Amino acid sequence: MGLENTATFHFDPVGNPGLTHALTITKASSQELEDLLEENFTKNHIFTSTEDERGGNMVKDLVDPVVFKRCLGHELNFASFTRFFIDEIDKLGYQKVLHKYLLDGTQIANDVLCRIYMGYVHGIIHINMALEFRQAKMLAEGLAQACVHHDWWYTEYLTEAEALAAKREEPNLPLADLIDMCRANHAVRTSSSADYHSQMRPVSGQFAMDMEPARDGVMKNAKPEMLKIAARYRVDPNDIDRACAEIQNTAIYLTAGTQRPPYVCLFDFSLLHTVTSSIGLSVFISEPSLLNEQKARILEYTARIYLLTYACHGSPEIRLDWLASHPSKLRNQGWAEVFERATYHEDDGHMSKLIRGLFLTAAIAAIDSGSEKPMDGVKHFDFIRGAGFPEPWERFPYRQSIRAQL
Predict the structure, then answer these.
(1) Helix, strand or coil for residue 270?
(2) Smallest Cα–Cα separation from 350: which of 295, 405, 269?
(3) Distances, alpha carbon 126 to alpha carbons 137, 146, 272, 299, 312, in Å
(4) Taking the model in full, what pTM does it have?
(5) Of 354, 334, 367, whose CA–CA distance to 274 is shortest?
(6) Residues 305 and 117: beta-carbon distance below 8 Å
(7) Counting Cβ atoms within 10 Å, is residue 38 exposed (0-12), middle (13-18) or buried (19+)?
(8) Rounded CA separation 273/256 (Å)
(9) InterPro entries of this UniProt entry (predicted)?
(10) How many angstroms separate the first and last alpha carbons of the chain?
């Protein structure tokens, strides 16, 4: 089966990662969808013109490996890479494109594979959704987005962790155990700080990332310790399905479990991207053109990125007890009601992707235990940044039951 070559809403690959694609539109839903897109654009300005897909004369030259490598990491080349990958998919088919530019183990494929995790995993999210919904242009966008990222420390971390893992100096451990090891390791736990997650531009007051928690925190202050932990996550090519479910469950474990009593329950904005990027792993491992060894590599890279993300947030204590005792506000609501609320939630798509990740992981891994009342204690989440540190929580309230006791 090939990918559908349908039109999509393009987006700013650097300025705002939020996007919505019109994947399935019925006659009955088209007007409502149009109204929602217009409203979302007005509030978030996440769509840009689709007129210039040509990318200039550079497109033809990108077939030359020398030119291709020279153009990597430059944001202005996004249009050229997008047009190039559209042409490559048309010419070779999406399977050969995945192999050639992502998974074949060549210098270019290895380079791009690391880049799909840059920009806080938005490249792999885009590629996952393209494969799931069979969208050729969306796959081209995802690969192009990866190619223009330039967060070199991801490449350093992933390649060095992979090389260390190949030595097999220590036995494999489950991903959740490695999460615990990050917290138990003093160097890793203290390598970042709340300052990385509360940077503001002095004039505009906009959130900034001039100091990067992975580059300037973990990799600077605890690189050997972090690599040693990451290298202990290895996937047996004959154990793909179980490993995929493990990663998806652990993503929810660390995202939902990062709470800090006595404050209300919140989701960390960065940690939630582990959930939204993990759901597409099921699509990757179902792709028949890929070898099990290639699937295992994708799973290993993804899990190691989640470990790094967790460390960037101070390796917070996982408090499932506090989460489970969260008091209900809207009782007796099933997935249908939650989906309805997510559709109209006023953000740039992060909430809906998070809830979709929770639902699909529950369905895939059978962790829902037959419940039809997901998240029934939640009316509205305000995301927190830097949930592993005490300072970001101070602007949020205590639970009412706790407040009444003070």
Answers:
(1) coil
(2) 269
(3) 11, 9, 16, 16, 23
(4) 0.82
(5) 354
(6) yes
(7) exposed
(8) 12
(9) Questin_oxidase-like
(10) 62
Residue 7 CB neighbours (<10 A): 10
DSSP per-residue letters across 140-202: HHHHHHHHH---HHHHHHHHHHHHHHHHT-S----HHHHHHHHHH-HHHHTSS-GGGGS-B-T
Which tokens belong to 327? 């008091």
Q: Is the dihedral of CA 175, 122, 26, 346 positive or negative?
A: positive
Q: Three-state DSSP class for 207? A: strand
Closest by alpha carbon to 358, among 294, 278, 263?
A: 278
Counting every residue written for the chain, the total comes to 406
The pLDDT averaged over each successive group of 10 residues in the chain (406 residues) is: 54 42 48 66 51 65 97 95 96 97 97 96 94 94 97 97 97 96 97 83 80 93 98 97 94 92 89 93 94 98 98 93 85 84 76 85 58 38 60 69 47
Close Cβ partners of 60 (under 8 Å, ≥ 6 residues apart)? none
Q: Is the CB of residue 132 less than 8 Å from the CB of residue 4? A: no
